[in-house]
Give the backbone structure.
Amino acid sequence: QLHTHPSRIRIRCRYQIFGCQKLLRYESLEQHENNECEYRYLSCTNFDPVRTVKEFEQRQPDCITTDIKCELCQQTMKQSQREQHFVNCDTTTE
């Protein structure tokens, strides 16, 4: 009779349905699913719900809470303040 030791069993990540192809040992599964998997679910209050970490990283540069720098005056602001800042920016181009 063949017995497989539990530490040798590989389990698929629960985020397989979103694209994760990892097969992990039981003792590694929780850490992967909660902290490492790029397909784990996140949500952002400033966007429509984001499904995965991977999607969040792709959208993050456009997120309204991302810090950006004015190319004219070098002032740092939130992405959401960009248009208003441009109207009022003290630096003019000629």
In short: The chain has a mean pLDDT of 79. The chain has three helices and four strands. Residues 61-89 form one domain.
